[in-house]
Specification:
By secondary structure, this protein is mainly alpha-helical. The protein contains 9 helices and no strands.
């Protein structure tokens, strides 16, 4: 697995083929199928194996830990952007994914929320980190974007100004005129990334308040 991850770090996901991995290991490509059923399975295992251990909560409250936990996922994904190209086809199942999930379930335990609610919160936070990392990565690599116009916030604003009808999109038109989308390179830093994360935390707090409030008689 280390060999495949090293190839991905060096050449991106396109450089990871069964033959390339076999060549590095000096074995026949077909021999790899004794350990993995397909390349897709290999990629899934790689993404899980490449993940670091989750941060320790220590004395942090649940909200503080949510920030640390989510940012740690974001930093990992940005550090290994090839993981962003591996489709997520289901809930956490690999050893590393399950460790991260367990850490968040434990951190939210004192909130009084049910295990199911805590599970859904963890999935939402993980999805947010992935979506933000993917967005920034795609915007920073215009050759892979839908258009080179999206290479900067200014280009995006110019495109919107050219195509929007102010009568139908008055707010977006106004926003495009002043190019107030922020810098792509700073998208994941405060206040941009933190803004969305604070919204998610506010939603968790609201859920906690509803769960701990007076309940109507059955």
């Amino acid at each position: 697995m280390e060999t495949a991850i090293a190839l991905a770090d060096e050449k991106g996901l396109a450089g990871v083929t069964m033959s390339a991995v076999a060549s590095k290991l000096k074995v026949a490509a077909m021999s790899l199928y004794r350990y993995v059923g397909s390349k897709d399975e290999l990629l899934t295992m790689m993404a899980d194996a490449a993940a670091p251990v989750p941060p320790v909560q220590g004395e942090l409250g649940w909200r503080e830990y949510v920030v640390v936990w989510t940012r740690a996922q974001l930093d990992h994904l940005r550090g290994r952007p090839w993981t962003l190209d591996i489709p997520r086809t289901g809930p956490p199942s690999g050893p590393s994914e399950l460790r991260w999930l367990e850490a968040m379930l434990r951190a939210l335990e004192a909130t009084g929320l049910s295990v199911g609610e805590r599970f859904n919160i963890a999935i939402a936070l993980s999805g947010y980190a992935f979506a933000q990392a993917k967005l920034v990565h795609d915007l920073a690599t215009p050759a892979q974007s839908a258009s080179e116009e999206f290479a900067s916030s200014a280009g995006y604003a110019a495109m919107l100004s050219a195509v929007l009808d102010e009568r139908d999109y008055p707010i977006l038109t106004s926003l495009a005129r002043v190019d107030d989308f922020g810098s792509w390179k700073e998208w994941v830093r405060d206040p941009d990334f933190g803004f969305g994360l604070n919204l998610l935390c506010a939603g968790v707090e609201s859920l906690i308040e509803r769960s701990s409030g007076p309940r109507s008689a059955p």
